[in-house]
């Protein structure tokens, strides 16, 4: 689990097995010749220590992980890759059987029993992938489960937990095999519920389940010939578009069906992502058909209408997902977080989410009203979008007021709460004229009441702060000092003389104001210039020898001249 299996990274696990095998071969001096490859078989007589059993086990794991890596290809394995995949599984079964025989001869009873379960599990995986002899695969899985159930009753706690996890991972494969041989009446919803389980042993089952569901969708898609949206019917001729739309509709049933209340918010977000992927695939195939439609106007009109309908449904699901995010954020806003690492929602985050919802409603309204022939359903849908836009504006204004209230700006918060109450009242009047909007009406009534109570709170808080303002002002003025040792001061008062900004009257100001830096910092001042006489070397002065005093010399000095 520490080398990639925890996250399904089979390529990393295969590299680990290969490196481990290389170290084992080298440390055991069990290499296959130098230069020319000479295969050396592992027999009972060669196994003198446990590392020889490790060789066989890691060889089986490497072959199995290689097969699982091929199974995880983005578009699935093609025919040639599937043949290679089954060959790697056969190799894994061969090494697992050898491992079981060697453990039976050299190991104790517990090791031998666990090796038998491992070999049975590998055999079951091979038959499961080959889509044949389901009864034999079922026997292998049942025998492996029985061994792990017995082993889970003994040993230390960690070993018991591992065995129980393996039993839980084998159970879906057993149920699927029984379903294939007709011993079980599994429904599609049961298979999907099993597919949500996690574990390395379930990856083959999940790929098999995806293939079964894709085949079932392709069969059902043959009957899906039209797409209905707001009174319009659009023909669907492309098989890929049918399958993508059918997949999205199945996922929508999971969100809006009777079991939707039991789903957690995280699972709903995952389902929304799958719905977006399916609708994007449908749109890409529709637009490809539009490019290749040629000059047939009727076909182009049908494809353009279908593209518009799918885009509108995609925008609706996007709006529903953003509403779910709002619900999650509101739950984190009101409750106190017990976990210190849990992030608390701020009102500004809800303002941003409501901005997204306003953008969704405006885009959806523009998309619906862009057609030439508007039906009664489209007009009603546009009116509903306008009412939702008004309700989202009221919610956005409410949380914007809450953010101003937390910042201590009572006047702005009071005005915004009044505006939110007015918007909520107008939205409530619009929704009361519609049908099937009880939930939105209840939410708007709650918002109206909260706006009214917060208006009173802000008004009272502002009066209290106004009563205490002179006292607080005198305290803060008395706290002004020349410099002080507070290093958190951003700017001194002398640096903000040109800015109209409150320093002591604002409730948000926490640090006491400072007048200026004392002692003042050194400043550079101008000094007298340095004069350099550069012309001196270039002046030719007149000779002064005639004015110089001459020395008088005697008779003897003349002789030596």
Task: Give me a quick take on this structure.
By secondary structure, the protein is mainly alpha-helical.
CATH class of the largest domain: Mainly Alpha
Q: Please tell me what the overall shape is.
A: extended
Estimate the helix proportion, in percent: 55-70%
Give the number of DSSP strands. Answer: 2
User: Termini separation (Å)?
Assistant: 115 Å
Per DSSP, the total helix count is 16
Structural class: mainly alpha
* CATH superfamily label of the largest domain: Signal recognition particle, SRP68 subunit, RNA-binding domain
**Which residue ranges are poorly predicted, with pLDDT under 50 across at least 5 consecutive positions?**
186-199
Strand residue content: under 5%
- Overall pLDDT metric: 80
Strand order of the largest sheet: 1-2
Task: Just name the CATH architecture of the largest domain.
Answer: Orthogonal Bundle
Radius of gyration: 41 Å
Organism: Manihot esculenta
Main location: cytoplasm
InterPro entries: SRP68, SRP68-RBD, SRP68_N_sf
Pfam families: SRP68
Overview features:
two-stranded antiparallel sheet; mainly alpha; single chain; Methane Monooxygenase Hydroxylase, Chain G, domain 1; Hyaluronidase domain-like; extended; 65% helix; 2 strands; 561 residues
